Amino acid sequence: MTTPTDPAPATHTSAGSAPAPPSLAYLPVALFTTVMGVAGLALAWAKASALAGAPALPALCLRGVATALYVVLFVLYALKALRYPAQVAAERAHPVQVNFFPAISTGMVLLSIAWLPTLPGVAHGLWSVGAAAHLVLTLHAVGSWIFHPHYSIQHASPAWFIPAVGNVLMPIVGMQWAPPDISWFFFSIGVVFWLVLMTIVLYRLFFHEPLPPPMRPTLAILLAPPSAGCVAYLALTGQVDGFARVLYSMALFVFLLLASHVRQFARLPFSTAAWGYSFPLAAFTMASFEMAHRSAYAWYAVLAWAGLALLTVVVTWLAWRTLRAALHGQFSRPQ
Q1: Which N-terminal stretch is annotated as signal sequence (predicted)?
Q2: CA distance 40 to 59
């Protein structure tokens, strides 16, 4: 429902008039997961280049694409916030969509990791702003879970992991500038909330109705916390110890579980939630390259290269489907 001070542009016109421009009112905040996916692909290629001799050009090109995509989405969503504050407030109050707001700060942190090798000053600024923003958004998300008037168990979904994943990522570059305790602070938040949310989400999946088809791709997000946690833990400690192996082994189990149901995922209709396949797979690929580099077992390298190939195909397919959806006006109407 619109108000005189917050009019939504018309999406149709009378005969003979020029078509109206797409409306920003319904631009979903979940689109920031596209930045996470493209940036994750860039980081996976960068990891393959640094640790396994892959060419550097794909990582450099993808880094530029991810940066441009973030800037465009940030400007568009800022315009939406200025022009249609009621729609933004509705997303912030929504029990599922509220969890996609931390994707904004997570995308910034991922870009800081991507730019660290060539522009450390820019990377430092991106990480500092992204870390502060992510803490605020995490507090808001967790506060909405605790002090809520409307949540039920049916609202629990893997999308709730997004705030946790962003915290886990902080040590990857945070150890470069901030005191170690800062990185451990964020890492601890991410790991503990991952365990808590895993319990809640699995209870919902085991004992209540399945996720609706448009949201089922978010099941892939279950792969992100242990995978990103493994990469971050190695950045914190510099060694493969028992806990690193626990994190990677859990990630491998979730990857195998998801792969065993790939036919069910392939039959799902496309939605923005399908980008949930991208970053978790990127994090698992990066963790595999790290484990291959730090251990003598060749099967880590097999998993790493297979993951990179699959990730490249998946992100290419998602980009094509998203562009097609945008051209058909899918993001200028209610989701």
Answers
A1: none
A2: 10
Token pair 């170690």: residue? 180
Rounded to the nearest 10°, the torsion over CA 236, 240, 243, 246 is 130
Domains of the chain: 29-327 (1.50.10.150)
Alpha-carbon distance of 64 to 191, in angstroms, equals 30
The residue type of 149 is P
CA distance 142 to 239: 32
Q: How does DSSP assign 40-53, residue by residue?
A: HHHHHHHHHHHHH-
Backbone angles phi, psi at 200, to 5 degrees: -65, -45
Residue-wise pLDDT for 13-64, tens only, equals: 444 443 434 578 888 999 999 999 999 999 999 999 999 999 999 999 999 9
Q: Are 162 and 100 in contact (CB under 8 A)?
A: yes
In the three-class reduction of DSSP (H, G, I as helix; E, B as strand; rest coil), residue 9 is classed as coil
pTM: 0.89
